[in-house]
């Protein structure tokens, strides 16, 4: 048997549009998702007992059944009971670098890494779409996190269509350490405030889904027009989160003043990101925003966009 060390990338939303309600209680979404090379490390080690054990270096991340990485391992054990009985349990060590509760899919990408890692460790030979189907049972962002890159996502976010890779773009991410936003709260509040405008008939739903396929962000990506990509960033949830958290609004304004390609809140926030065309420019923007805001609670990162999500960093026999 082998142990595996994997890296799991964060995601940002280049486009997030809420179209309506779904019969399953989730929102119908149209999104463009993008992997960012800011990664957690997930170490998987076989255990001789039948336990699933999780450790994490971040104090706010639960290490029991609530952890998405734990849930991923439990799902694999339930789906493949004979293999689980044969190979035994697993110890999962999560080294967090992706900020928690940040709108960067940190938990989802950890779950995706466990699915990919256990498939290897247990020699199951699952296909990418089988892994994505398992991922969809854990959370809407997990199927994307299994593959990564640049994707158009519809439905709950699990119906994915690949878009051309974006290479020469850097991202500056900023988040107040003490601030986190509940994804459930953001979507519920959006429903309360804007639910009256939701699309309800099936045909209109399909029209709106199709519109994003031929929409300006997808066109900008197809033409690899970085200026246009920056200008077309869009997130419906800003309408909820920015009025509630003025410091996030100010952060966004600071980025705007730095001559970046574009700036936007990611997912349900509160992380704000800005896109630049070079690492040098990204580092300059990071420094200037750090100086302008001068708050020790503010954390900033610079990372390139990436076309992969889960990578095997190392593997060795045990
Ligand atoms: P998303 O963008 O998918 O909504 P997020 O980036 O906003 O997610 P996460 O970092 O995934 O948020 O964390 C949300 C909550 O999930 C945290 O408050 C934490 O308690 C819980 N959680 C469970 N498992 C994990 C994990 N492996 N990593 C981080 N948080 C986790």
Automatic annotation (TrEMBL):
Catalytic residues of the enzyme: 11, 141
Pfam families xrefs: GHMP_kinases_C (PF08544), GHMP_kinases_N (PF00288)
DNA damage keyword on record: no
Catalysed reaction equations from the record: 4-CDP-2-C-methyl-D-erythritol + ATP = 4-CDP-2-C-methyl-D-erythritol 2-phosphate + ADP + H(+)
Positions with a binding annotation for ATP: 99-109
Pathway: Isoprenoid biosynthesis; isopentenyl diphosphate biosynthesis via DXP pathway; isopentenyl diphosphate from 1-deoxy-D-xylulose 5-phosphate: step 3/6
Keywords: ATP-binding, Isoprene biosynthesis, Kinase, Nucleotide-binding, Transferase
The EC number(s) this enzyme carries: 2.7.1.148
Domain GHMP kinase C-terminal: 217-289
Family label: Belongs to the GHMP kinase family. IspE subfamily.
HAMAP family for this protein: IspE
Protein name: 4-diphosphocytidyl-2-C-methyl-D-erythritol kinase
Biological source species: Trichocoleus desertorum GB2-A4
Gene coding for it: ispE
